[in-house]
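Issue 218. Parser rejects a valid record. Input:
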Amino acid sequence: MSPTHLLVMDVDSTLTSTEGIDLLADLAGRGPQVAAVTARAMAGELDFAASLHERVACLRGLPQAGLQEAAAMVRLTPGARELVAAAHAQGWAVAAVSGGFVQMVAPLAADLGLDFYRANTLEVSDAVLTGRVVGPVVDRAAKETALREWAGVLGVPLERTVAIGDGANDLDMMAAAGLSIAFGGKPAVVAAADHAIDGSLAKALPLLAAAASA
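Output the parser choked on:
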């Protein structure tokens, strides 16, 4: 049976309580430098693509094994597994789209049984990170494109889509969705969202139930 609705979530600081780039930066010994750029980018003070390239450049030389090590340190946000399971039980499709990295999002998606995911790909050569990403950057426009694309593939009208995010990079997909939820959101995101929650993603369950019955 085809899904009736689509839930799309940001990953870092939404679906997970960790920031993938910061975990990798710590392993590379560049944590403080990268964290400062991340904070400015998420607050909308920097162009995301430029800031991503700047941060990823700090990872150059990190052994490929660091990707698996960092992925093992990812922690789900409280209520995340419950939310995904409940959405699937209600016949929804669930997806994640991230300005982070596919090497860390893919294991998470497999663990949660997500229907779709999209993220940036870190380039690896000779078993070390090159400090570059491969292909187009997953920025705020790409996140909106992903939501629209997945809804189209599923045949789900946009008014039956829900987007959850926390940063400026999520604003376009949240605007496109039928229902938008800020989770621990920056002020601009909270102001733009239909609802704002924090602490646990399980707080979104009543909102999804209401959307399903609308």
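Fixed in the parser; the record now loads. The two ends are 20 Å apart (CA to CA).
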